[in-house]
Amino acid sequence: SLSSWRNAFSYWKDRHICGPKPIPIFGNFLRLSLNPRPLLELEWYKNYGKIYGLYIVSKPTLTVADPQLIKQILVKDFNIFRNRPTVHGGTSLVMPRARDEDWKRIRAIANPTFTSRKMKKMYALISHCCEDVIDSLDKDVSNGMNEVELKQLMSAYTMDVIACCAFATKINTYADPNNPFTTKGAKITN
């Protein structure tokens, strides 16, 4: 009934947090689905400030755009906010979608890879991969190309960075898109 939807959508109003007006059944989800999310979130940030409330269907969701508060949530108060919302398809053993003990175990395995010392060592490798992207774009432009398939370009860059940093292998995906490392990696990510 309409009154039950009003009650469901009064959560943020009762807590004096503003946000975009939800519509019955969908909340703000329909608008999020039909518009480019970054542009819509920027619009809401300008209209409602650094903290605003949304409804994904009837579930209240708080959006935070204050760097200090984000740091407090993600670092200091992590034990309170440890799980991200579940997405379509449920949970998995991939770090961004893992939950609770699975996430903790995966993080413990991955964490030693991303120490500041190791990240500093990776910087030169990543920078070199970035130079390869720029060289590839320069070559395309000098050959008269005026459009670029951005997803393909960024996928190739990502694959090169992973191959270079994780496997000490230079694959140059731009020059050789049929490299077995590239094609097998694309199958995994797709």
Describe the structure.
Its cofactor is heme. This is Cytochrome P450. Belongs to the cytochrome P450 family. Pfam families: p450. One of its GO terms (molecular function) is heme binding. With 190 residues, this protein is mainly alpha-helical. It folds into two domains: 2-81, no CATH class; 114-189, no CATH class. The chain has nine helices and two strands; from the N terminus they run ααααββααααα. The protein has helices spanning 2-8, 11-14, 29-34, 37-48, 67-76, 100-110, 116-142, 150-167, 180-189, and strands at residues 51-56, 59-64. The chain has a two-stranded antiparallel sheet. Strand 1 and strand 2 form a beta hairpin. Helix 7 (116-142) packs antiparallel against helix 8 (150-167) and helix 8 packs across helix 9. The longest helix is centred in the C-terminal third of the chain and has 27 residues, at 116-142. The chain is globular, with a radius of gyration of 22 Å. It starts with a helix and ends with a helix. 9% of the residues are buried. The mean pLDDT is 84.
